[in-house]
Amino acid sequence: MHINVRVRPPVKMPPVNMHGESRKGARMCLGIPMQVLETDGFTALCAGRGEERRVNVMLIEEVPPGGWLLVHLDNAVRALEEEEEVKPLNDALDAILLAARGENVDHLFADLATPSGTPA
Predict the structure, then answer these.
(1) Has residue 84 got a pLDDT over 90?
(2) For the chain, N or C: smaller number of CB within 10 Å?
(3) Is the pLDDT of residue 26 over 60?
(4) Is residue 75 in some structural domain?
(5) Rounded to two decimals, what is the model's pTM?
(6) Between 104 and 12, where is the model more confident?
(7) Are 73 and 62 in contact (CB under 8 A)?
(8) What is the mean pLDDT of residues 2-29?
(9) Domain, as residue range, for 53
(10) Closest to 36 measured CA to CA, from 80, 72, 101
């Protein structure tokens, strides 16, 4: 028995993302911490990083005004338990912006740059 197998050369994929957009100058979507100002159980007016927006909260348990959410594409992904979770997230987002401009980010991660037990 003889089997004919044709081997095709690898297909070169165009430089586009899954939405058909060019990867050149691609953007990254990140979750951002936002504080709930008011809620109606379906959406919440939230503030964070210098802006306010209406966020879908139907996929998470209710978070009262004053609580914090991790928001991705105008949808609440999860509640942030304590305000202590907010600072590291904002520091990481600030670091991305500073690094993109070629600026130093060490001050945002001093706790990681200093060996434990050594004063900063």
Answers:
(1) no
(2) N
(3) no
(4) yes
(5) 0.67
(6) 104
(7) no
(8) 53
(9) 32-113
(10) 80
> Which of 39, 83, 80, 41 lies closest to 59 in space, CA to CA?
41
Q: What is the CATH number of the domain that holds 82?
A: 2.30.30.140
Three-class SS state of 88: helix
Question: DSSP assignment, residue 46?
Answer: E
Alpha carbon separation from 113 to 6, 23, 34, 94, 104 (Å, rounded): 55, 33, 27, 17, 13
In the chain, how many domains are there?
A: 1
Closest residue by Cα to residue 42 from 32, 54, 33:
54
C-alpha–C-alpha distance, residues 84 and 113, integer Å: 19
64 Cβ contact partners less than 8 Å away, ≥ 6 residues apart: 36, 39
- Asked if the structure places residue 24 within a domain, the reply is no
Contact 50, 91 (CB under 8 A): no
Determine the residue type at 118. Answer: T
